[in-house]
Amino acid sequence: MTVFEKIIKEHRIEGKMIPGEEIGIKIDQTLTQDATGTMAYLEFDAMGVRNVRTKLSVSYVDHNTLQTGFENADDHRFLQSVAEKYGIYFSRPGNGICHQIHLERFAKPGETLLGSDSHTPNAGAMGMIAIGAGGLDVAVAMAGGPFYLFMPEVVLVKLKGKLKPWVSSKDVILELLKRLTVKGGVGKVFEYGGEGIISLTVPERATITNMGAELGATTSIFPSDEKTRLYLKAQKREKDWILLGPDKDASYSKIIEIDLSELEPLIAKPSSPDNISSVREIAGKPVDQVCIGSCNNSSYEDLMLVASILKGKKVHPSVSLTISPGSRQVLEMIARNGVLADLIDAGARILENACGPCIGMGQAPPTGGISIRTFNRNFPGRSGTINDRVYLANPAVAAASAIAGVITDPRELGKPSLISIPDEYLIDDSMMISPAERPVEDPTHREEVEVIRGPNIKPLPHRGPLEESLSGQILIKLGDNITTDDIMPAGTKILPLRSNIPAISEYVFERIDHEFIKRAKESGGGFIIGGVNYGQGSSREHAALAPMYLGIKVFFAKSFARIHRSNLINFGILPLTFSNEKDYNLIEQGDRINLPSVKREFSEGSPITVQNITKGKTLKMVNRFTERERKILLAGGLLNLYR
Questions:
Q1: Among 11, 316, 540, 562, which one carries the catalytic annotation?
Q2: pLDDT digits over 460-490, tens only?
Q3: Cα 434 to the center of its chain, rounded Å
Q4: Catalytic one among 28, 34, 62, 409?
Q5: In sequence order, what DSSP letters do the residues of 420-444 get, joined into one string?
Q6: From the candidates 538, 539, 559, 566, which is the catalytic residue?
Q7: How far apart are CA 500 and CA 593, in angstroms?
Q8: Contact between 101 and 56 (Cβ < 8 Å)
Q9: Using alpha carbons only, what angle is made at residue 500 by residues 495 and 503, rounded to the nearest 5 degrees?
Q10: Of 277, 150, 130, which Cα lies nearest the Cα of 208?
Q11: 62 given a catalytic annotation
C-alpha cells in the first residue's frame, strides 16, 4: 500500500478504497482561520453539539488581522469565545500563519487533518493526510461526523538526485505545475518518494505539499522518515513521530520522475501558477515590489537564506521589499540571532506574522508594476491591484531581485551560505490558548461561557428543499479556470464582511462584471455558467453562500473544482455539468432557462432536462451524484439535512 492508502485504511468509515468511489473518513484534527472560521463556527454552533469531538481542533487568527474597523476585532473576540466554549485551541492574532504553526506544533504522522483553507495540505510534509475543505465540512468533522471525498488516484512523484545551489523545493512544485497545469491534479493525490526526498527537510517538503493545491490535487504527502523525526525532535515533539512509508510493492496510478539536479530557478508569470518559465529567460525585467512570506515560504530556514543574501547590501531604490515571518517562533528566533537586524538594515519592511499581502490584505503593488512574491497564487487582482503583474518565485530569486531592482537569477550571486535546520527551535506556546481540562461527558461543560457576537455577525442564510421545477435567466457566462477570488474577492474591503453574508454578497463577481449584482436582484436569482475547472483556488465557502443568498440555484459548468463543488452541494446549489462541451455554446448570458422536472429527474438519477426558452433548444445535463449528495441537495443543504 501507499502511504496515503495506509492512513485511509486506518480512518475509513464508509465506502470502498477504489478510485472514484465516495468514501467517508474519520478526522483526527481540524484547523480554521479567521476568514473562513467565523462562518464555520456559526455553522458548528447551529448544530447544537456541546463539544468538539476530534482529537484536536485549532482556531487560528491570521487572515483578517488588519483592523481598519470594528469588524475584524469583533470576529476575533467571537472566535476566542467559541474556542473556550467548545474546547478548541485558539491561536491569538500575532502568533502566526495557521499552516506554519500547525506544522511546528500539531501536525502528526499517520493522522488526518481537515482545514477550512485550501493550503491545509501543507501538513502533508509531516506524513499526514491533510485536506482543505469548506467550513461546513469542517464543522461536521468537529461534531464527530466523517468527511466524505471521492477516493483519489495516487500518483508517485519520484525524486532523484539533489537540488543544486540556489534551486529550492519551490522549483520542484513549479516544475510540476509547468508539466501538469492547474487542473492536472484533479482527482489525484501526489505522494513523494525516491532517494531524492532524503535531501529535503520538512519545511522544504511543506513548500511542495502546500502548493499541490495549485494543481487541483486532493492533497500531497511525504513519508514520515528520519528527517521527520529530526524536525519533531527540534520542536520538542519527538513522541509524535512514527516511521511511515509505502510498501516496497506499493502500486501507483502513475509515476512522475523529477531529477532534482536538473532543475533551475523557475518563476510563475502573470497571472496563473502554471504559467512557468525559467528565471534566466526573463531576467532583467524591472521590479517594483518584492514580498517574501505567506504560508508557503516563511519558515526559519527561508528567512535565514534571504538574510544571508541581503546582509551588507541595500534594497534597490525602486523596490519595496516586505517580509512576513510565518510564525512568532520564526520571528523571535531571527530576532534573537541578529538576522532581523540584517533584514532591517538592508531596507526590508517587516510585516506582521500573518497572511497579509498574499490575500490582498495590504501591500497592493503599484499600477502596472511587477511584484515578485514567494507566495502560492498570482490569480488576477488577488494582490489588490486590478491588472496586477505578480510573479511567483523562490526566496533566493526574490531576495536577489530586491537588491538588483530587476528579475535576477540568484546563481549570479556566487556560492550560497549554508543554511541548516536548527537542532532545537525556540518553543513558546503562550499565545496558543488551550481548552480547559474538563471531561467531555460533563453535560454542563462550558455552558456558562457566552459566545460574543458583534453587530457584523449575522445569522446563517439558508434555502428550502429543492423545488419541483426551476426557471430563470442566465445571469453571467464565464470561461475556464474561474477562481474563487473571481467569484468572491478577498482584500481589505471585503474580507471583514466574511461573517455578514448579506453585506459580502454585494461583491460577487465584482472584478468581472459590475452589473452582476443588479441583474441578480432584478431577476430574483437565476443561473450561472462556467467553463472547465470552475471554482479553483481557495476553499472559501462564501463563493457558494453569497450566490445562494442572491437566489442562484444552479451552476452549469464543463467541470468543477473539488472543494467548490462540495461547497455548492453543502448549501443546496445544484452543480450540473454539460454532457459535452459543445452544449456550452447553446446557452448565452441573458437566455431564459427552464428546468421543468428537475426534482424528479434529479431524484431518479436521470439526465436533467434544460430548456433554453430564448433559443428554442433543449439539452441534457449530467446528473452524477452519490446517494448522500442527493439527500443533501433535496434537503436544500447539509445543515437542513443535519437538523
A1: 540
A2: 888 899 999 999 999 999 999 999 999 999 8
A3: 25
A4: 62
A5: ---SS-----TTEEPPP---TT-TT
A6: 538
A7: 30
A8: no
A9: 85
A10: 130
A11: yes
Q: What nine digits make up the cell of 590?
A: 441573458
3-class DSSP assignment, residue 530: strand
Phi-psi region of 483 (alpha: psi -120 to 50; beta: other; left: phi over 0): beta
Helical (H) or strand (E) element with 159: strand 153-160
31 sits in which H/E element: strand 29-33
Q: Catalytic pick from 377, 382, 411, 498?
A: 377
Tens of pLDDT, residue by residue over 297-345, are 999 999 999 999 999 999 999 999 999 999 999 999 999 999 999 999 9
Instruction: Please check whether residue 619 is in contact with residue 586, taking contact to mean a CB–CB distance below 8 angstroms.
Output: yes
Location of C-alpha cell 502560492: 376
Give the Cα-Cα-Cα angle 190, 193, 199 (nearest 5 degrees).
Answer: 120
Q: Which three cell numbers stand for residue 262?
A: 536538473
The question of whether 63 is a catalytic residue gets the answer yes
- Here the contacts of 362-365 (C-beta below 8 Å, separation 24 or greater) are 362/66, 362/492, 363/289, 363/291, 363/320, 363/322, 364/388, 365/288, 365/289, 365/389, 365/390
C-alpha cell at 561: 473544482
Question: Cell 459548468, residue?
Answer: 557
CB 348, CB 339: distance < 8 Å:
no
The residue from 11, 63, 76, 99 that is catalytic is: 63
Cα first-last separation, the chain:
38
Q: How far apart are CA 536 and CA 216, in angstroms?
A: 7
Non-local CB neighbours of 248 within 8 Å, separated by 6+ positions = none
8 A C-beta contact, residue 452 and residue 77? yes
Residue 418 burial (C-beta neighbours within 10 Å; 0-12, 13-18, 19+): exposed
Query: What is the per-residue DSSP string for 306-332?
Result: HHHHHTT----TT-EEEE--SBHHHHH
Rounded to two decimals, the pTM is 0.94
SS3 147: strand
Reported as type and span, the H/E element at residue 635 is helix 627-635
Q: Give whole-number Cα distances, 247 to 4, 11, 151, in Å.
A: 11, 18, 19
| Residue 436: all three cell numbers together | 480547559
Residue located via cell numbers 484547523:
31
